[in-house]
Design a protein that fits this description.
Layout: E1 4-13, H1 24-30, E2 39-42, E3 48-52, H2 59-78, E4 83-85, H3 102-111, H4 113-116, E5 122-128, H5 132-142, H6 146-153, E6 158-159, E7 162-163, H7 169-174, H8 189-201, E8 215-217, E9 223-230, H9 235-257, H10 267-280, E10 285-287, E11 294-296, H11 297-314, H12 318-331, H13 334-349, H14 362-376
Antiparallel strand pairs: 1-3, 1-4, 1-5, 2-3, 5-9, 6-7, 8-9, 10-11
Length: 398
């Protein structure tokens, strides 16, 4: 099977107030990272830190790596009186601090408030491809399905102390960047490289690292990088979404071998689908990736599972994905859990009677962050440092 790995950005937060803390430099300075472990690295803002996994072969292996990365980040944060929370935007309003770095300083100068306010935490899935040429074929075939992943991962309903009405407000904030969002069909690696060069030649963006397409060819790895997801509240959901991404990549490659052409969906429709997924998450309708008409979110999610089910079945992951999707739909995504945490706190504070229509208080939002911090490392105790048992590497159908 293709190898896959992920990058997760998590917030560094105060354990009582829930406010973001600008401690990334301090965490990295005191973090003793074994050479064989997952990594920690800085991001645009000092209030966040990124974890990376090694290339993995199975859901269980990847989930283990994700959990270990979260434990590592949290242990580093605790040395400085903080903790980490896997949420895609901060529920609480606060100033942000840009990581001291010449490139980031140039971004701040060039993009102003877009860079100043860009405290967002994404989840990037890398899946191996045999060549950049195959990677471009994959990009063309998967572009119309990516919005479903946004809905599944949505984990940012609050922004600067206010409810947004969106499940993934990170998507809205992120799409302020000039190259973000869905891309048109490329058709070939030559066309992909030509477009990248033309974007760089405009002088609007600083470098190729700012090619922020929903999915792109990685500059540093032989992978396709899918970038539409919020960081997931739960490690198991993150690993599940990564399995879906890998299945999409493999399905696209098989379609190429069968001579199936990518669906020429207009980019404007893809933007509609992305916006709707960002707004509704799993609460209402998504745009079906077949006809781009509204359908109940669960129907569109299951349609995606059906689409990649031959690959999932062949790889022994279909029953695992079905169970994981059903659990996620029953429980709700991270945005739903955040809202529920705010309601629970408010109900306790007001004797079981929440005040409908009132925005959550700072104390309620602190409770949201506290809940998120617990869930982020739940099930990630000392056994997260051990390798998973080989018998857990794959789930096979009877």
């Amino acid at each position: 099977m293709r190898t896959f790995g992920v990058e997760e950005e998590v917030l560094i937060v105060h354990p009582v107030t829930g406010e973001p803390l600008a401690l990334a430099d301090a965490l990295l300075a005191t973090h003793d990272q074994p050479a064989t472990a997952t990594g920690l690295s800085p991001e645009l803002k000092l209030e966040q830190i990124e974890t990376q996994t090694r290339p993995c072969h199975s859901y269980a292996e990847l989930r283990h790596q994700i959990r270990r990365g979260r434990v590592m980040a949290n242990e580093a944060a605790r040395r400085h009186g903080a903790q980490v929370a896997a949420i895609a935007t901060s529920p609480l309003d606060s100033n942000t601090h840009t990581t001291p770095d010449p490139r980031y300083a140039a971004m701040l100068d060039r993009f102003g408030i877009t860079a100043t306010e860009q405290l967002t935490c994404g989840f990037h899935v890398h899946t191996s491809v045999e060549s950049p040429e195959e990677g471009v074929v994959v990009l063309d075939h998967i572009r119309d399905k990516l919005a479903v992943l946004t809905a599944l991962s949505a984990n940012s309903p609050y922004w600067r102390g206010l409810p947004t009405g969106f499940d993934s407000y990170r998507t809205q904030a992120w799409n302020r960047w000039p190259t973000s969002g869905p891309s048109a069909l490329f058709g070939s690696l030559t066309a992909y490289r030509r477009l990248v060069k033309r974007l760089l030649d405009t002088g609007v963006i600083l470098d190729e690292g700012m090619i922020y397409f929903d999915a792109r060819i990685s500059r540093n790895h032989p992978t396709v990088e899918v970038r539409v997801a919020d960081v997931c509240l739960r490690a198991e959901d993150a690993a599940l979404i990564a399995v879906l991404v890998r299945a999409l990549v493999e399905t696209a490659s098989l379609e190429m071998l069968d001579g199936v052409e990518p669906t020429p969906v207009p980019t404007a429709l893809l933007r509609m689908a992305s916006w709707q997924a960002s707004n509704a998450g799993l609460r209402g309708d998504l745009l079906d990736f077949g006809d781009f008409r509204p359908r109940p979110a669960a129907e569109v999610v299951w349609a995606l599972v059906d689409y990649v089910s031959p690959v999932l079945d062949d790889q022994g992951e279909l029953e695992l994905v079905k169970a994981g999707i059903q659990e996620l739909l029953d429980r709700g995504n991270g945005a739903h859990e955040q809202r529920e945490a705010a309601v629970r706190f408010t109900n306790r504070r007001h004797g079981g009677q929440s005040q409908a229509g009132s925005p959550p208080t700072a104390e309620a939002l602190a409770a949201v962050v506290g809940h998120a911090a617990k869930v982020t490392v739940r099930g990630t105790s000392a056994d997260a440092h051990k390798e998973p048992a080989p018998t857990l590497a794959r789930v096979r159908r009877p």
